[in-house]
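User: Assemble these into one structure.

Assistant: Restating your components, then the assembled model:
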Amino acid sequence: MNSVFLHHYLIFMTTETLVKNIKAKKSFLCIGLDPDLNKIPKYLLSEEDPIFEFNKQLIDATHHLTVAYKPKTAFYEAYGVKGWISLEKTINYLNLKYPEIFTIADAKRGDIGNTSTKYAEAFFTDLKFDAITVSPYMGIDSVEPFLNFEDKFTILLALTSNIGSHNFQEKMINNTHLFEQVLTESLKWNNAHNLMYVVGATKATALIKVRAIVPNHFLLIPGVGVQGGSLEEVCKYGINQNIGLLINSSRDIIYAGSDLDFAQKSMEKAQLLQTKMAEILSQNGF
Amino acid sequence: MNSVFLHHYLIFMTTETLVKNIKAKKSFLCIGLDPDLNKIPKYLLSEEDPIFEFNKQLIDATHHLTVAYKPKTAFYEAYGVKGWISLEKTINYLNLKYPEIFTIADAKRGDIGNTSTKYAEAFFTDLKFDAITVSPYMGIDSVEPFLNFEDKFTILLALTSNIGSHNFQEKMINNTHLFEQVLTESLKWNNAHNLMYVVGATKATALIKVRAIVPNHFLLIPGVGVQGGSLEEVCKYGINQNIGLLINSSRDIIYAGSDLDFAQKSMEKAQLLQTKMAEILSQNGF
């Protein structure tokens, strides 16, 4: 594939492409690439770049079962310059070898306008991710610089799956939760069609409230598996006419094995989820 | 200075040291190191690492007038691996040459627990910053991993200086603003003595509300200068028995000049602020 075509392809990742891929693969799985040198197979530690080697093998083994990969930037930044190089190699590998796959920088960034623009440049222009996760706390001018990038997606934290989500996200403001205010406000922002939202799977019934406000947007759902969320529950309340769901699984899949066959074990775990997803898609007429 | 001593010195940055430095330098200035290749002096672009060269000259020219430097990570990430190298060189230069200076990674991170731990390792252990800015949206378990580092400071976003602060931070929850809830809740968290807070200078009267909840903690105040905040107003409402303020200025200082003498121009701008600060300290009996 020549680079002109690659560039052309990359800038046209759209909702339509994503939906088409979900239907083709019968999967709305997103795999979290959160490599930790203390957890990856020991034999990889002698590689020049153990993190990239780990990711590469995982990607090659699972790419047919997943529509998205989501590296959490923290797991790369923890290793400084070396980690950033591993992140760059990982996204370049994905964009070159599997350009149809949706790539999410799970960075949870957000700052005043000129600074958010720099973050958007870092992840959309420099690294060429299709999407980035963003924190809503600083409001409109901290998020719009991301939304200004057409054919890129801004995945806003709404309701997260961790314990601390009770502290603020679930507080009531004029009879609605803060996370509902985030959803409602964000729809007024420039290029709101480029938004997706993070909604934790441990709050499946909260999805009723979420879908009442954002019936059409895609939701990125972490927390299925280790964190206790149920895939069936999430789909029951979250699925829409475009499917509209990306279900993330990280640790369950990427640490399924710890030996030479680790990628095979990961593939088997991903396969289990994909099989369930194919059933759910079929039950819902897709 | 040998590395054992350096290490020993670095892990003992405390509030007492910071206050001592403020009194010695008669300054509570923090300089934002937010380098943009489109804005730095053109002659630096032929350097091998223009960003580090820009920072180095700024630091050497202003270190006697400031008690803290605060690189915004976005301005480094925008340049990928090269940018991260510049950030690493900048913090290493500060820690080696000016170890008494308080260093803040303005990163606005925050994620679920195991991921926040990775961010804390990235900025506290790997890069050896004294402090990091953190977003409160995900609550207790997204912030405590930072607080767990003793002799390191976690600077929580409370009330920011941008327009979008109206969207959520100033919303009312049970008769108090969300930013007040953030302050109140955070005091219950493990190692809350390691907290500082971001409070925008454009809201000087809001400082009354802030000081009612956190009378003793340090506040990091952006927004003086370009963003319109008044130094006198901020000090009137924000100063406490430990001084308790770090006033950040970025663009006003770092882009004061654009030629060979840019660092001298920056020094003059910093000098103006430091002179005002010395007066304010004197008026307040420090």
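The beta strands of chain B are 29-33, 68-71, 102-109, 131-134, 153-159, 172-173, 176-177, 195-199, 219-221, 245-249.
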